[in-house]
């Protein structure tokens, strides 16, 4: 199993990889560019290549995360074109850094009168991007936080969108534990049910990364507020134990997106390694 956190690229992609190693992490996540912009970035290819080589040398896995404005359900043609260009740029950077793929949030509901419209737009967007993409880095669809019944909160939706795309082999999944808890997909007590359902759907066959977050709010309230794994949160440590004991997750990187102001990521990674890493011979 691999554990790490989201890191800044202010010292470059190689700098982020070196920071991960210094903290005894075995994985990390980064924004490929300004997280608040969809502008195409003319990135430092030498830095990206050095990051890739460093990760290979030190057995580090990495994943990128698309900027916040990225939406697979854009409201107009102008934004649609911006997102497509931005995602292709993100994929190019992700590939150059040797990362598994780029995490992209599942789309949002944009028409209450036509619930299928959002899914149709998402599939069209994914097809347009992936038709032009020939690299190995994947788009990793992430489950949404939301009230039960909200769009993008079930494994069935993620699997079905992937199946309906023309390039399913270029799509994987990211499971966010806080989002799953917020939506009631995983309420802390039903992991065996989630696992059985995911295996039957083929979800775990395509799962590439886990966003490892506790929740500041109780399950089924739809609130996406991350909390430290060992801090005050509604998901109990023994409930996280169930995930760690799941064979299907043994080779999946766990990435912290927890508030580092409450518990520094370096300390939290150490606590995670002490509880789960040593048990698994890491």
Structure description:
It is globular, with a radius of gyration of 18 Å. The longest helix has 20 residues, at 77-96. The protein is built from nine helices and ten strands. It has helices at residues 12-22, 45-57, 77-96, 116-132, 155-164, 177-183, 191-201, 237-244, 265-277, and strands at residues 2-6, 27-30, 61-65, 101-105, 138-142, 171-176, 207-212, 214-215, 226-227, 253-256. The strands form two sheets. An eight-stranded parallel barrel has the order 1-2-3-4-5-6-7-10, surrounded by four helices. A two-stranded antiparallel ribbon has the order 8-9. The mean pLDDT is 95.
| Low-pLDDT regions | none
Helix content: 25-40%
**Strand tally:** 10
What is the molecular shape?
globular
As an assembly, this protein is single chain
User: Order of strands in the sheet with the most strands?
Assistant: 1-2-3-4-5-6-7-10
Mean pLDDT: 95
Order of helices and strands: EHEHEHEHEHEHHEEEHEH
Characterize the largest beta sheet: strand count, sense, and whether it forms a barrel: 8 strands, parallel, barrel
